[in-house]
Design brief:
49% helix; 12% strand; 13 helices; alpha/beta; single chain; 297 residues; globular; eight-stranded parallel β-barrel; TIM Barrel
Length: 297
């Protein structure tokens, strides 16, 4: 295994115009503060990075810009696509550019079987040589990785990690134990869904794949540091303090809220890719009031 994903992996949006052309200076302006905050890795072109809305050429432009801005901070880049051959090409691009790992979701219009997903990962791993993180995102892909499938994939050379949606707090320890029972030592078990991730990390998760980390890295790093230092009550309190923001994430989706945050902060003025619509005036004001109340702007 070429790397171990741990700590905070920060996932920024991908600024692009209405035609899907990446705004390279704006992307650099998003990535640079993440590095300054000390994030462990940057998740470029994830779901928050709207990777499926971008062409292969624009995804490469975004990756090149992100790598330049990130310096020594590892980049984990989304390489998911509807077709296996296209995912292979994206992973090959990422490998050639110097990405540390690829984030691969089983994107499909037709529901996939476990065997189909397994062969998809084997092919991308073998033909690209890029270390892969399993992207379990059933809310988007409508495919959920069973522990048995995770165990099979963890034995594939080049598959190094999984990004799972965090379960409810009471199930975090059992979920982690179930995965630990099927993967080898050195396989990274990471979690997303920001408002639930603190309990998954306290339970022993290796990596927090964070949306808020991509726009407010200091807030996310404060939680991670308290977990790493063993001050679990303080980590929970910091997470609870962000509940007004988590409420907006649940109500409007984290993607729409983060786009509004970037606009309100003057980072970037464009809108999310259609058909996704930006938040309306009332919702946008709720975001502004929340950020001001939390002293995030």
């Amino acid at each position: 295994m070429s790397m171990f994903l741990s700590g905070l992996s920060a996932f920024p949006i991908t600024p692009a115009d209405a035609e899907g052309r990446v705004d390279v200076p704006a992307l650099r302006n998003l990535v640079t503060p993440l590095c300054a905050a000390g994030v462990n890795s940057i998740g470029l072109l994830g779901s928050t990075g709207t990777y499926l809305f971008l062409s292969r050429a624009e995804r490469r432009r975004a990756l090149d810009a992100g790598l330049e801005a990130a310096g020594a901070v590892p980049i984990v880049v989304g390489v998911g696509a509807l077709r296996t051959d296209e995912a292979v090409r994206l992973a090959q691009d990422a490998q050639a550019a110097g990405a540390a790992a690829g984030l691969l979701a089983p994107v499909s219009y037709t529901p996939l079987t476990d065997d189909e997903v397994f062969e998809h990962f084997v092919t991308v791993a073998q033909e690209s040589g890029l270390p892969l993180c399993i992207y379990d995102n059933p809310g988007t892909t409508h495919f959920r990785f069973s522990p048995a499938l995770v165990g099979r994939l963890s034995q594939v050379p080049g598959v190094i990690a999984i990004k799972s949606p965090s379960p409810e707090a009471t199930a975090a320890s059992s979920h982690l134990a179930e995965l630990r029972g099927v993967v080898p030592d050195g396989f990274s078990l990471g979690y997303s869904v920001d408002w639930l991730s603190v309990e998954a990390m306290i339970a022993g998760g290796h990596c927090w794949y964070s949306v808020i980390g991509g726009i407010f890295p200091q807030a996310a790093m404060s939680i991670i540091r308290e977990v790493e230092n063993g001050d679990l009550d303080e980590a929970r309190q910091l997470n609870d303090r962000l509940e007004p923001l988590w409420t907006l994430f649940r109500k409007f989706s984290s993607l729409r809220v983060v786009y509004a945050c970037a606009d309100l902060m003057g980072i970037w003025r464009a809108e999310p890719p259609r058909p996704i619509l930006p938040l309306g005036v009332v919702a946008r004001q709720q975001v502004a009031d929340t950020l001001e109340g939390l002293k995030l702007i």
